[in-house]
DNA sequence: AAGTCTTTGTAGACCGATCGGTTTAGACGC
DNA sequence: GCGTCTAAACCGATCGGTCTACAAAGACTT
């Protein structure tokens, strides 16, 4: 079997960057071609479904990364370790605030209609996984659920504000506040030893 | 002087809704025409600068509304009243989570480059006004600044998450948590009576 | 090993539709 | 009837998407 000179896995991240930079509608084929160095013909060979397939596969890839690196540890690993792991991985994944969340961006524009289910599942699972992790770590279920929602939403907001005022430190500060509040939440809610 | 049959002030909010629904790139003239009931010719008569002018005037209008209804009260009014006023006005303005923040949406996509200054100023002034208000209400400057940033970012994140998982209550809960933490912040930081 | 076939991937010309934007003919209020 | 405003025909450019011509690389035949 002949191998692609450029693997799909090599092209996808570049296309993702195009979507990040210009949005789904704004990322035209000429932009994508320029950014990836791959011609339109090749792109359609790899992604017969066009832009929609590209976006769908990118979302699936992002979701896969989060499931493997964040959600599964949160769901099955040692709670406190998984939590600590999440803070560092999130900071790295979003380049400390310099890289926006494509799922969040898609959630805001018209793209949402096409990928509603994928977007919904991504955020729902994140909140759920985090909430259950906190409960396993000793938090009250209600407080855990609220804090999980608060966390995911803060990360999204931090990325927006950081980009808006062109100050990535906003994101790092938000992340720091989150990990601090998580510790406070668990410290005061764990049953007294 | 002849008056426009439809005033610019009548058209602008409708165009804004088109941008909200489809994004700056995604909102084509045919969409805008359909949504406003105003033909392309008329639109160009009112906005010779095309979409860019529309977006600029919309951003200016949004900014004006926030300055008048939120920032100025925060900056010059009685701090606690201004704060309480902000929570209710924000909830109303964003339709309790059902309406996204256009400035935030523009901050995420390529549009940002065109309107960088407007976006930057909007968010900066919001954070600054809120921070100074909290200081005047008795908060520590550092804590006030952190909380102001936290507030603006939470509102943006709340709008994203609410739209993403199609549950407007997410936004209301976030807003409630904000006003509660604001009270806690001021209660513990005001000098003992 | 040379020559051809087949399969796979690439480049970009090409397509109709639609984009943002302009122009123009005429409707309508003064 | 004059000047303002509207509707829509019209423009070149570019959109997402298709198609074709061909390059590259085994596999098969001899």
- What value does the Rg of chain A take, in angstroms? 19 Å
Predict the CATH topology of the largest domain in chain A: Tetracycline Repressor, domain 2
Work out the count of structural domains of chain A: 2
User: Largest sheet of chain A, described in full?
Assistant: none
Give the rounded overall mean pLDDT of chain A: 92
User: How large a portion of the residues of chain A is in β-strands, by DSSP E?
Assistant: under 5%
Please give the CATH class of the largest domain in chain A: Mainly Alpha
SS-derived structural category of chain A? mainly alpha
Topology pattern of chain A, helix = H, strand = E = HHHHHHHHH
Low-pLDDT segments, ≥5 res of chain A: none
Helix content of chain A: over 70%
Greatest interface by residues involved:
A-B, 41 and 41 residues
Quaternary structure of the protein: homodimer
How far apart the termini of chain A lie comes to: 62 Å
Write down the overall geometry of chain A.
Answer: elongated
Which homologous superfamily in CATH is the superfamily of the largest domain in chain A? Tetracycline Repressor, domain 2
- What is the number of beta strands of chain A? 0
Distinct helical segment count of chain A: 9
CATH architecture of the largest domain in chain A: Orthogonal Bundle
Write a structural description:
Two copies of one chain form a homodimer. Chain A is mainly alpha-helical. Chain A folds into two domains: 48 residues, Arc Repressor Mutant, subunit A, CATH 1.10.10; 135 residues, Tetracycline Repressor, domain 2. Chain A contains nine helices and no strands. In chain A, helix 5 packs antiparallel against helix 7. Chain A starts with 7 loop residues before the first helix and ends with a helix. Chains A and B meet through helix 1, helix 6, helix 7, helix 8 and helix 9 of A and helix 1, helix 6, helix 7, helix 8 and helix 9 of B. The structure holds a DNA duplex (30 and 30 nucleotides).
């Amino acid at each position: 079997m002949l191998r692609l000179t450029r693997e799909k896995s090599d092209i996808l991240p570049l296309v993702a960057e195009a979507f990040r930079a210009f949005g789904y509608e704004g990322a035209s084929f000429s932009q994508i071609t320029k950014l990836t160095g791959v011609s339109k013909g090749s792109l359609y060979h790899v992604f017969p479904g066009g832009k929609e397939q590209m976006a769908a596969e990118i979302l699936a890839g992002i979701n896969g990364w989060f499931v493997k690196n964040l959600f599964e540890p949160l769901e099955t690993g040692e709670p406190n370790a998984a939590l600590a792991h999440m803070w560092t991985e999130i900071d790295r994944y979003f380049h400390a605030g310099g890289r926006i969340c494509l799922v969040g961006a898609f959630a805001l524009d018209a793209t949402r209609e096409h990928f509603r289910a994928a977007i919904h599942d991504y955020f729902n699972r994140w909140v759920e996984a985090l909430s259950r992790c906190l409960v396993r770590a000793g938090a009250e279920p209600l407080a855990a659920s609220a804090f999980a929602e608060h966390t995911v939403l803060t990360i999204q907001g931090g990325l927006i504000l950081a980009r808006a005022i062109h100050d990535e430190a906003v994101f790092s500060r938000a992340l720091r506040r989150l990990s601090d509040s998580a510790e406070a939440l668990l410290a005061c809610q764990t049953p007294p030893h």
